[in-house]
Write a structure and sequence with these properties.
The structure is a homodimer of 217-residue chains.
Chain A lengths: L1 H30 L6 H8 L3 H7 L3 H24 L5 H18 L1 H8 L5 H27 L8 H20 L1 H8 L7 H15 L5 H6 L1
Helix pairs in contact in A: 1-2, 1-4, 1-6, 2-3, 4-5, 4-7, 5-6, 5-7, 5-10, 6-8, 7-8, 8-10
């Protein structure tokens, strides 16, 4: 009986933890990590701030976990596209388009994940997830080099360059100053332009002979 | 007389502030921002920790200023190369080689500036300096597009992609895990390989027709 009580309690704890994380993600998607305060989150989840601290030592730990879950979701989404059958160059293009579109449609979250200034615990996770993205690209680039579709000597370095280029292309047009400019009516590039520029940049960079290049002329 | 005393005191204050910042940069170059504690720094500068707080409110503010000074130095060094006379593609290649070499020869500092997890104040500066780098590339890319040397529709986006690719290429081989691997005898790419990969990646990406590509074959 004691055992069953403990198990039930563990279930409730896990369920509450999940609810806290869901509320936290909603906050970050709405207002970035800046909006993720322990007090506001406790209110969202309908619990006392003290209970919140029983689940997470502090904002840094909580932010890092929100970051890791949201990022894993993006990595999985990208992996699903990059690992479909087909030509490596077409899959790279499709993966970039998918990634850009997802970021574009959750801009506040994308900026928070990629570049919002935040606790060092999140920076630690950023480095780990950049490696996770890089590994996906290494896989694809190696396949493409073997198939003669990509021309690259240092596949791991090329993959790192791709990760950096993608993140920075999206931070620019997704950043708060760029959003402010758009809200004031000054126009930035739109999703199709960002997407096309990114695809052209990356395909050319890895030495693919482009259908995209012909399109661009 | 009162005025002269005040002026002399201001000079001494400025001099001490400069000495603190020099000591702080030396610490970061040696052990990253992790090695920059207020207590150790006060000892290096030969002052009481209390005096240190009279000049800087805390580690975040101090780290942000060390970051800004070191980064401005790198921006200036890159600008000097990118703004020399000559063909835009050759200047881009020379700028990338210079940047990679400087980072390679101060790896701990380069990793600290580009990616070490650290206070949000430094992350804020990172965003600003990425824009400063991007502006340098915008200038060069615009010139190259006008000259027909580069093929790019969205110059600002292309510049952002370059900034990201460069940072990520250098964080990889400069990161603590990569350094640990090298110390254990597993080899990573060396500077000429990193430099050549980066130049080829970036020149191809912006649509330059490469002498570098022929070299690579």
């Amino acid at each position: 009986m004691a055992y069953r009580t403990t198990a039930a309690r563990q279930d409730r704890d896990l369920e509450l933890r999940q609810r806290i994380l869901d509320c936290a993600l909603a906050r970050v998607a709405e207002g970035g990590f800046a909006a993720l305060t322990m007090q506001a989150l406790a209110e969202d989840a309908g619990i006392a701030t003290g209970s919140l601290y029983r689940h997470f030592r502090g904002k840094g730990e909580l932010a890092a976990e929100v970051f890791a879950r949201a990022s894993q979701h993006e990595v999985d989404a990208l992996a699903a596209v990059l690992r479909t059958p087909g030509r490596p160059d077409a899959r790279l293009a499709a993966g970039l388009e998918r990634f850009a579109a997802r970021a574009w449609h959750s801009r506040r979250l994308a900026f928070a994940l990629i570049a919002e200034p935040v606790d060092p615990e999140v920076d630690e996770q950023r480095l780990l997830y950049r490696e996770a993205y890089a590994e996906l690209f290494v896989e694809l680039l190696e396949e493409g080099v073997r198939a003669g579709v990509f021309q690259l000597e240092q596949v791991a370095l090329g993959a790192a360059c791709l990760v950096g280029a993608i993140a920075e292309a999206l931070v620019g047009p997704l950043s708060p100053p760029a959003r402010a400019a758009r809200e004031q009516g000054r126009s930035g590039p739109d999703l199709p332009e960002v997407s096309r520029t990114l695809v052209t940049f990356c395909l050319r960079a890895v030495g693919a002979s482009l259908p995209a290049e012909e399109k661009q002329q």
